[in-house]
Amino acid sequence: QVLTSIFGGPLPNQVIYQRTNRFEEKQYSLFGDLSYYATRALRFSIGARYLTAYQSFERTGDGFFNGGPTSDAASAHDHATTPRVSVTYEITDQTSVYATASEGFRLGAPNPLVPAQFCAGDLANLGLAAAPNAYSHENLWNYEFGVKSQPARWATINASAFYIKWDKLQQSFNLPTCGFSFSTNVGSARSYGGDLELTVRPTSELTLSATGGYTNATLTEPVTALGIERGTPVEGAPRWNASAAGEFQRPLTPGLSGFLRASYNYTGSSHGALLVSDPDYN
User: Fold this and answer.
1) In whole angstroms, what is the distance from residue 212 CA to residue 197 CA?
2) Partner of 261 for a Cys bridge, out of 100, 139, 247, 275, CB 3.0 to 4.6 A?
3) How far apart are CA 74 and CA 43, in angstroms?
């Protein structure tokens, strides 16, 4: 009677919503690395990783909010070769600098079923008639420069700066009215920033450390179909992060030692979605 009063009639099998996803993935990878010392202080490294992956899935759904019984199945094969090149130069026995260029790759995957009957309004707001069945792989190039130094036996300093260029960026979209979500590729993005790490040991028993990082990650091209402008922040990428820790350690008995540690971690605000209208945007 309650279901009848809400939905205007009996539901098939009294099911409001039911979904089953069966997903299988197999990955095979081969990688190698070769280093060459041009001099005692100068070292070159080159490496590569080959990945091949096979995916298959079956999706079934039923119930009122699924628009009745649905099912589909598909399979896919993807592969990539990702190289890495780096050079390291030891300025002194205590200080070295390095530069690295490397490619990254992340597989795509199928999306859960999104019933168009109940999500038509949300999808229309994104310029879509239906949610994509799957999203493709993404890849990026990372360029990094860094310094590692131990200016004294009791201190260590590491610093780095990076620039990342993304293609076929994978991002998720929440449909606020019907409650479903999906992921899709939204084009290109870039990210740049750096981090600094400092560790000091005032005594043999006390270690203090602090880190800080900055990241600026935004889309480099608009996604006109979804109403997303160039310069929109990439979701889940806080601009600032920091941490600090202190640890005191000493022997208690000849066979037993103890330590006391305190730490603090800070993660700045970020965007949980690309659309300002999404409740998870901030």
Assistant:
1) 7
2) 247
3) 47
CA 263 to each of CA 96, 134, 246: distance values in angstroms, whole numbers, following the listed order: 28, 41, 6
Structure tokens that stand for 50 in this block: 């080959």
Beta strand spans in 201-239 (E)? 206-219
Find out whether 79 and 53 touch, Cβ atoms under 8 Å. Answer: yes
Structure tokens belonging to residue 83:
């190289």
Per the confidence metrics, is the pTM higher than 0.85?
Answer: no
From the number of C-beta atoms within 10 Å of its C-beta (0-12, 13-18, 19+), residue 237 rates as middle
Let me know: does 139 contact 103? Beta carbons within 8 Å.
Answer: yes
pLDDT per 10-residue tile (average), the chain, 282 residues: 62 76 93 96 97 91 81 88 97 96 93 84 87 91 97 95 95 85 90 97 95 96 83 92 97 92 96 83 84
